[in-house]
Structure formats: structure tokens, C-alpha cells
Specification:
By secondary structure, the protein is α+β, with helices and mostly antiparallel strands. It is built from 15 helices and 4 strands.
Length: about 450
């Protein structure tokens, strides 16, 4: 137990150190773009890192954010009191943003619904970032690091950098941390590679001055919109957030090199324009991606409802018919048999009359759970109707099918719950017992009732 606690403590300490280091490195990178004031920049990724960390790991990682923010600010201003105050504002900003997202936008599940993404944009991207900007500019102005006459311009730069960090960096970090594994088909992988290539090429063409119109500053930023729509409609919010992040990086690099539609005579003005563009496109893309994900989830839920039995969770009759038709075609093509096991819950009416319909429904679910635990991945277990169940066993002969049927019956009788229940079973083999769907089910039904008849005779004889 002590070793486990020590191991957990070390992992937690490692997380805090890594978070502080990431905040510091990202902060130093962001401050390279500070123009109007050494302490204020329109590019501030640490805000997004902090928000994602607080949503993923909880509020108690705030000391790492405080330390990282302090180290960044003290290396710039050299004033410890000022660095402490600014770091406190950065930390409070992250805590407030995380609280608002947890309270009003379902926390780490923010990317699953469009309205939650929009709530994130408003509460974290606009509201919470105003805390850090206001506190930070007041502190550096009081400390003589900025002129009060520049308060408005410095505040806007500070706030916009934090806001875009929450809108661009936080979703990418959060979504990849929650879903780090990629389960793409070959076709999806090729499409993702094509999308990434197109984003890079078009972004370079628009922002990076590598094409003949490099000095014209044509307003071609609209060319990026179809690519973001592609990412939103064809992929998950994770990939859409990544597309926005890549586009943002190329756009900032090109704009600061003096190219693209947002390049202006002053460095700070160029940054503000390109970051405003990035923030707006991020909101648009993430909201649309979440809406598409919602629709996809609803369609999948409807599909599951259409093919599953609501009480037992097994396939319904429609899905059973589809599975049988598929296996009949396969068996006819390969000359390999398959089996259908039909089973009936004995005495369901008696259970309902004696114990109530709720217990009867639970008895049906007990049979369903046994079926699911006894089937292979390629088998189809279904509720045939009422108190009857069916299992389709691909590439299974008579002896193996009866073995499965008896094993299921034995597990049902020995599941250890009350009241004790039992099932009768019947087996039919394609094509021996029937070449068509109706013939196969009729043969299985006859086999089932032959089994029930033999059991009754044995019970009467005893």
C-alpha cells in the first residue's frame, strides 16, 4: 500500500513538473511575439495548456500553472512582486475558465455538443481571459513596466492572445488527451493525409508568400474555409481542432514575415488581425464539428435502436432475419453449414403470475446475459419474440450446435439467482434442415418443441 501511494505521489509530482515546464516553454515562445509591451503578446499558448490541464487533471494542478507563469514573467520583468501578481492572474484565469466549462459546458466532454463548444468560446475564451488581461495590465502599469496611456492597446493584445489560446490550443490538447488512439481505415488515413497536405499548401499560398502574389496581400483567407469544413464534416472534433492549430501556425508565421492578407506596416497590428481571424475560424470549425458529431451519434443511436431489443439489448427480429439471410448466402456460396439455436424460457407466465412482471422481465434479461456471455464475436444472439431467443452460429455443425445449446441451458439453470429458471432448446442446420429462412426457422421450432415434449414425458414418467 505504501509503495502504491508513493508511486501515485511520484506520478502526480511528475505531472506537475511537466505541466509547469510546458507552461514555461510555451510562454517563452509566445513572448517572442511581444511587440507593444514585453509582457503582452497576441500569441499566448499557455492559456490553452492551462485550461486543458485543469479540465483533464482537476483544479489541484493549479500550483504548476502558478509556478510556470511566475517563471515566465520573472524572466521578462525581473520584478518578483510583479511576476507573482501576474502569475496569480494567469492561474485565476485558468481556474475560472475550467470552473465555467465544468459548470456550464460539461467539462472535458465539451467537444460532444455544439452548444457546449459555443459556451466554451464565450465563458473561457472571452470572459475568463478578461481576468488575466485586466489584472496583468494593471500590475505592469503600477510597476512602471507599461504606460497608463497604453492600457487599452496592451489589454486588447493580452486578452486576444489568451482568448485564442483557449480557442485553438486547449481543444487540440484536450481532444487528443481524451482520445489518443487513432482507429482509421486505410481510406480514412489517406483522406487525413490529403486534408493535412491541402491545409499546409493552401495556408502557405495564402499567408506565406511563396507564390507569385506574395507582395499583393490579396484577401485570399476565404480559401481556407472549405478545408476547415472538410475537417469538420469528415472527421471528429479532434481532427478539426488539429486542422485549426496547423492553419494558425502557418498563418502566424507567414503574417509575421510580412506576407498574406493580414500583413500591416506594424508588427502588432498584423498579429492582432491574424489572431482575430484564427479565433473566429476556430469557433466556426469546432462548433460545426461538434454539430456533425452530435448528428453522427444520433444516427448511430437510432441505428442501434432499430436493430436491438430494448429490454434485453440483444438483436431484434429484424437483425436476426438479416443475419440469417447473410449466412444463407454465405453457406450456399462456400458449402459450409451454419446452425440456428432456438430457445424458449420455460414457464414465463407462471413466473409473471407468481412473482410479478418485473421479475419476469428480469428473467428474460438473465437469459439474454447468458447468451451474450456464451457467444463468439461472429455469432448473433437475438430475441426472437416474447419468451423465445435465437442464436445464429456461423460455420457450425450439428454436434457443436447442440453442445452450445446445452451449455447455454446449463448456465441459465445455474446462474445462482432466484427464481430458478430453465430454457428448452432446439437446433436446425443449414442446408440439412432447411434451405430458406422460413424453412430453417420452422425446423428449429419443431426441434424446440420436440425437446419440450420429451421433457414433459420424462416429468410425467417420474
Amino acid at each position: 500500500m505504501t509503495r502504491t501511494i508513493q508511486s501515485q505521489s511520484l506520478r502526480r509530482l511528475g505531472l506537475l513538473v511537466a505541466l509547469a515546464a510546458a507552461y514555461f516553454v510555451a510562454g517563452r515562445l509566445g513572448l517572442r511575439f511581444a511587440v507593444a509591451n514585453p509582457n503582452a503578446t497576441a500569441v499566448w499558448p499557455p492559456t490553452g495548456i492551462a485550461l486543458a490541464a485543469l479540465l483533464l487533471a482537476g483544479y489541484d494542478v493549479w500550483p504548476a500553472i502558478l509556478v510556470g507563469a511566475f517563471l515566465v514573467n520573472v524572466t521578462i520583468s525581473g520584478s518578483v512582486p510583479s511576476a507573482v501578481a501576474v502569475a496569480a492572474g494567469n492561474t485565476l484565469e485558468g481556474l475560472l475558465g475550467a470552473y465555467l466549462v465544468n459548470r456550464f459546458a460539461r467539462g472535458r466532454r465539451v467537444g460532444e455538443r455544439a452548444r457546449d463548444v459555443f459556451t466554451l468560446a464565450v465563458l473561457a475564451g472571452i470572459v475568463s481571459t478578461a481576468v488575466s488581461a485586466t489584472a496583468g495590465v494593471i500590475v505592469i502599469s503600477l510597476d512602471g513596466l507599461a504606460r497608463w496611456s497604453d492600457f487599452g492597446s496592451i489589454w486588447l493584445t493580452w486578452w486576444l492572445g489568451d482568448a485564442v489560446g483557449d480557442l485553438v490550443v486547449a481543444p487540440a490538447v484536450l481532444f487528443w488527451a481524451l482520445h489518443p488512439r487513432v482507429h482509421w481505415t486505410r481510406r480514412q488515413t489517406l483522406e487525413a493525409a490529403a486534408l493535412l497536405s491541402c491545409i499546409v499548401v493552401i495556408a502557405i499560398a495564402v499567408f506565406d508568400g511563396l507564390f507569385p502574389w506574395r507582395d499583393r496581400h490579396y484577401p485570399l483567407e476565404f480559401l481556407c474555409v472549405p478545408l476547415l469544413l472538410w475537417a469538420a464534416f469528415r472527421f471528429e472534433p479532434r481532427e478539426a481542432a488539429t486542422a485549426v492549430l496547423v492553419l494558425s501556425g502557418v498563418a502566424i508565421a507567414g503574417t509575421l514575415s510580412g506576407f498574406g492578407p493580414f500583413a500591416r506596416p506594424t508588427y502588432d497590428e498584423s498579429l492582432l488581425l491574424v489572431q482575430a481571424f484564427t479565433g473566429v475560424t476556430a469557433i466556426m470549425t469546432l462548433v460545426l464539428a461538434a454539430a456533425v458529431a452530435e448528428r453522427r451519434e444520433a444516427q448511430e443511436r437510432l441505428r442501434r435502436l432499430a436493430v436491438s431489443d430494448p429490454l434485453t439489448g440483444l438483436s431484434n427480429y429484424r437483425q436476426l432475419v438479416q443475419a440469417l439471410e447473410t449466412e444463407i448466402k454465405r453457406s450456399s456460396r462456400t458449402d459450409r453449414p451454419f446452425a440456428v439455436v432456438l430457445m424458449d424460457l420455460d414457464g414465463l407466465k407462471t413466473i409473471n403470475d407468481r412473482f410479478g412482471h418485473l421479475v419476469g422481465s428480469l428473467a428474460l434479461r438473465r437469459v439474454a446475459e447468458t447468451l451474450l456471455g456464451s457467444c463468439r464475436g461472429i455469432d448473433t444472439a437475438a430475441r426472437f419474440g416474447g419468451d423465445e431467443f435465437a442464436v445464429v452460429l456461423p460455420e457450425t455443425g450439428d454436434a457443436a450446435a447442440w453442445h452450445v445449446a446445452r451449455r447455454i441451458a446449463d448456465r441459465v439453470a445455474r446462474d445462482g439467482e432466484e427464481p430458478v429458471i430453465s430454457v428448452s432448446v432446439g437446433v436446425a442446420i443449414h442446408p440439412r434442415d432447411g434451405a430458406s429462412l422460413e424453412g430453417l426457422l420452422n425446423a428449429a421450432d419443431r426441434s424446440l418443441y420436440d425437446t419440450k415434449s420429451r421433457r414433459r414425458h420424462r416429468a410425467q414418467a417420474s
